[in-house]
Task: structure prediction
Amino acid sequence: MKKKWLLVVGLTLVLAVVGLCGCSTELSNIQLSSQQEGIWVTGTGEVTVVPDIATLRLGIAAEAATVAEAQSQAVESMDKVMKALTDNGVAEKDIQTQYFNIRQVTKWDRVKEEETVIGYRVTNMVTAKIREVDKAGTIIDAVAEAGGDLTRIDSLSFSVDEPSAYYEEARQEAMADAKAKAEHLAELGEVSLGKPTYISEGVSTPYPVYRSVTVEEAIPSSVPTPISPGEQEISLTIQVIYAILQ
Result:
C-alpha cells in the first residue's frame, strides 16, 4: 500500500511540474506577443515668427517719513503713469496690478545697536500689454516722463498672441519629417512601410523673450527709446510608429 501511495504522490508532483512549465511557456508567449512592433520615428517642425505682443512690467516706488505721505506720492505718480499708458493706446483691460507693498525703511543705529525706522516705502507694480509693438519705445518714454524719479521699469517681454496657426504649420512639417525618416529606415531595412499605428504630439511652448530696460535708457527725447522684438521659434515634435508590411 505504501508503495502505491508513493507512486500516486510521485505522479501528482510530475503533473504539477509539467503544468507549471506549461503556464510559464504560455506567459512567455503572452509577453512576447504584447511587444510593440514597427518603425519608431520622431519628427520635428519649427516655425520662426515675429512677436506681436510686448508686455511691459513697470510702476512706481515712493519713500517718505510716514506711510500716509509715501502713499500719497505713490497714488499721484501712479495715476499719471496709468494715464500715460491709456493715452498711448494701452487698453485698461490689458493693465494688471502685479505687486503692491508698503514696508518700513530702516537703518542700523550704531549707538543703540538696533534697527531704526527712518521712513516707509510704497511700491506699486503693474504689467501693461502693448498690442502695437512698434509703439513700445514711445510708451516707455511716456511712462518715464509721467512717473518722474519714482518710475520703476523692471522688464519688457515679447510673445505671440495667437500661436495656434503657427502650430498647425509646425505640425505639418513635423509629420512630413517623421514620414521621411520612416521611409529611409524602411529602405535601409529592406522592408515595406505601412500606415501609422500610433501618433503622439509634444508641443514646446515658447517662453517670452525678455529685454531689460532701465529708467536711464527711457529718458524722454526727440527720438523714442529703440525697441526690437526680434524673432521667436515655435517648435513641435511628433512621435509616430509605422507598421511594417510583410
Q: What stands out?
A: Residues 77 and 148 are 8 Å apart (CA to CA).
